[in-house]
Amino acid sequence: MAIQSQESELHGGSYRIGVDVGGTKIEAVLLAEGNRVIRSARIPARHGNEAVIDDIVTVASRVCEDDFTQVEALGIGTPGQVNHVSGHVDNIVNLEVTSLDMGPLVAERTGVHAHVENDVNAAALGAAAALGGSSVLPGTVAFLNFGTGLAAGLVQDGVLLHGASGAAGEVGHIPVEPHRFKCPCGQYGCLETVCSGASVARLWPSANPAMPDLIRRAKRREAKAVDVLDMVVRAIGDTIQIVAQSVDPAVIILGGGMAKTGEPLVQVITAELRRREAQCRFLESLDLPSRLRLAPLDQPVGAIGAALAV
Ligand SMILES: [Zn+2]
């Protein structure tokens, strides 16, 4: 188990714990005032309901040294279909969980109410906090998660927007992509079939990670790379416009594994948006490229956001 501790003893006051459940590891942070991470811990993820609950309780206990009395809030971010009101989670495919009362079971073991969010929402809030310094970025913030799948998390003045059924920001399954690939959801042409991390890996299998290599080769004018990058970046442009023109965010954060490509990705997206702006005065007036930010790579945004989502 990896534990980092910047402060050995807690000095009264109130703390928040955030736990990020991933497909391969489970990570926790202890947050003090001003959203400062003062401790973190990480363990490999195991499969099955009991192991998942055990692991969440283990990492949470580590960061507060088994003393939950000073913990005012405990939040968990997880893949799967999350009911953020009840704390129930269905279908965490990578961890072999089909149905789990995650929030109530963790609360029972820790004595602290445990709030559960989907992992994209948690990362959205965590990234908005990390970019905001001591407070979460104000106003409307959109976080685009180019992970295995494609989804957005929407934050309004530090509060997550869930919608009526928790589906706000599920832009990956909007079926507007012109190549009309079949999506596992049953539709054809979902944005996720072209511009998620998994899709880019499928479209450009010659390198892992795919995106940096794809951009490099397209810059060298390799014909196949130019075609594939064009397809991917157009879908990203559509995704950004759909989110931007729906909620008009002041900041659009690029996150998920694909965003680790960094500045080269921002550059190709900016070029695509500028190309569109040249055809549309309205779009030009929005100046979307100026709103783009990369999610910070040096901070555990999923765990931080889980702590703040409570
Ligand atoms: Zn779909």
Automatic annotation (TrEMBL):
Pfam families: ROK. It comes from Bifidobacterium colobi. The lineage of its organism: Bacteria, Bacillati, Actinomycetota, Actinomycetes, Bifidobacteriales. Belongs to the ROK (NagC/XylR) family. Signal peptide: none annotated. This is ROK family protein. PANTHER family: BIFUNCTIONAL UDP-N-ACETYLGLUCOSAMINE 2-EPIMERASE_N-ACETYLMANNOSAMINE KINASE (PTHR18964:SF149), ROK (REPRESSOR, ORF, KINASE) FAMILY (PTHR18964). InterPro entries: ATPase_NBD, ROK. SUPFAM superfamilies: Actin-like ATPase domain.
